[in-house]
Structure to design on (318 residues):
């Protein structure tokens, strides 16, 4: 029976890791990838329109040709996404490749900005000015005023427009890459936590405790979303069940320690319903609470630390 429970724990860990990986490489990155595809098509359309404005300009044609080649590279099968066969469904979207593709696309958009007609440049100028005003960051209002201070045809305005566009692109890329980094950290912590769960489960058992702790960890962000109507972050959603399972196991062990008659911090009911009897209702409910509330485990751990760190009273008989 114990062996079957450990196999069940291993199966749950593998299934959860698979779901986390698919979500990270597919569902989370998919919106940005679809937006990337749309922006690439928009760049192609703009390049085609600009190619017809001055067909006799060889330098302009060479720039547009190089730009089209760069866009072709972004649309290749393995440049951004992984596919089994070219043109088939996307298997995975590596976050590092997606971030690099967005930087390449932004560079292509800035090159197109240099080739725009005066009317299009005026529209881009107004769009950049409105984006600065909407961001409301320090210095953005001054940049917006400088953009409006000169006519769109002046070289100073064109240079400032390129600089502002690059600044806006850098902000967008930095925010997206920070989000990707948080997702990678969450994935690594989830992988490490699942490995720890497997080791603890194989060595100590307590499969029921871990599963109930994972359930509590899953319920914690769900209840938070239902109560506050706010979305939890991706890292919290991924790590909460893993952390809940580990906290439940460690929490029952701490309860057994604090309920020991030699310490007497907790009552006898916890002595009989903790580490040595994890299948009793009180122990199972306690494991669920440890998974649900990280503060409960923290407070109990601080209490146990205080009991260990406090020196014994010399006047108290041994």
């Amino acid at each position: 029976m114990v062996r079957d429970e450990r196999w069940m724990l291993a199966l749950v860990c593998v299934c959860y890791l698979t779901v986390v990986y698919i979500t990270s490489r597919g569902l989370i990155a998919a919106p940005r990838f679809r937006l990337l595809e749309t922006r690439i098509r928009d760049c192609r359309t703009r390049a085609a329109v600009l190619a017809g404005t001055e067909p006799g300009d060889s330098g302009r044609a060479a720039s547009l040709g190089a730009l089209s080649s760069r866009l072709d590279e972004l649309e290749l099968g393995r440049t951004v996404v992984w596919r089994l066969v070219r043109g088939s469904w996307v298997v995975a979207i590596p976050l590092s490749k997606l971030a690099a593709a967005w930087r390449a696309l932004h560079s292509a958009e800035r090159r197109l900005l240099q080739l725009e007609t005066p009317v299009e440049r005026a529209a881009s100028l107004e769009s950049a000015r409105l984006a600065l005003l909407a961001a409301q960051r320090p210095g953005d209002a001054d940049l917006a005023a400088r953009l409006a201070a000169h006519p769109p045809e002046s070289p100073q305005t064109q240079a400032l427009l390129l600089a502002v566009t690059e600044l806006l692109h850098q902000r967008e890329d930095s925010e997206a890459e920070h989000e990707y980094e948080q997702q990678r950290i969450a994935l690594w912590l989830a992988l490490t936590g699942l490995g720890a769960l497997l080791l603890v489960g194989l060595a100590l058992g307590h499969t029921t405790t871990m599963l109930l702790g994972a359930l509590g960890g899953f319920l914690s962000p769900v209840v938070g979303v239902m109560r506050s109507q706010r979305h939890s972050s991706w890292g919290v959603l991924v790590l909460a069940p893993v952390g809940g399972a580990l906290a439940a196991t460690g929490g029952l062990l701490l309860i057994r320690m604090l309920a020991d008659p030699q310490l007497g911090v907790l009552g006898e009911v916890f002595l009989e319903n903790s580490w040595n009897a994890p299948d009793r209702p009180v122990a199972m409910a306690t494991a669920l609470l440890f998974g649900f509330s990280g503060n409960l485990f923290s407070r109990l751990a601080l209490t146990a630390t205080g009991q260990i760190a406090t020196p014994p009273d010399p006047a108290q008989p041994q």
About this structure: The first helix runs from residue 2 to 28. The CA atoms of residues 39 and 105 lie 8 Å apart. The chain has twelve helices and two strands.
